[in-house]
Design goal:
By secondary structure, this protein is of the alpha+beta class. About 45% of the residues lie in helices and about 25% in strands.
Amino acid sequence: MSGHSKWHNIQGRKNAQDAKRGKIFQKISRELFMAAKQGGSDPNNNPALRLVMDKARAANMPKDNVKRALDKADGGDATRYDEVTYEGYGPAGIGVLVHALTDNKNRTSSSVRVAITRHGGTMAGAGAVSFMFDRKGMFVIDREDLDMDEDQMFEAVLDAGAEDLQTTEDEFTVYTDPKDFTAVRDALEEQGFKFSTSELTMVPQNTVPIPEDKLETFQNMLDALEDDDDVQNVYTSAEWPDED
């Protein structure tokens, strides 16, 4: 029975991971469709599409999934998605930004409101939270197979024209001005770097520690938001506790 239970747990985790991966691919497909609809399906002539394709590559999205999204855009699908940003607060005044692509703003607005308020948060007006964030280009590089220390990486990043480097035991995170995103990406790729993440993101100017008694509730809020098909990205000013 214990062997069966162990397999059941492993299979459960695998199914959860597969579901999460499928959700990510679904969201990227929507971005690909929208970018191709607006600027054409040739990434060489459509910088916005090239950016999403880089994101798909970093997420290990199958090429068939990418092709289906582009074929759908080329095939005259009349679906229209609007970009919408919702703003709110979590516990202790933690800023929450929710970026969505939706074909039904009323549905998405209602879902986001429920996810935030049901988990102890509050909605905020336009601009109330977004001013606390800066838009940045971000590249994450795994250190596992990289024979390079922080000083060497800093020099490489500086040469590529990036703004900042943050280092952990597992990865290097490179930040750049959004307008320099393409140039920095190309310069880093020319140096042979591979990205586990390559995207434009929102970086909080200051972070707020999550109250210990609100950790689970706040995580449940984020899970509810990220589980919404219309929600593309969730950004917060939360400072997470160090893992033991």
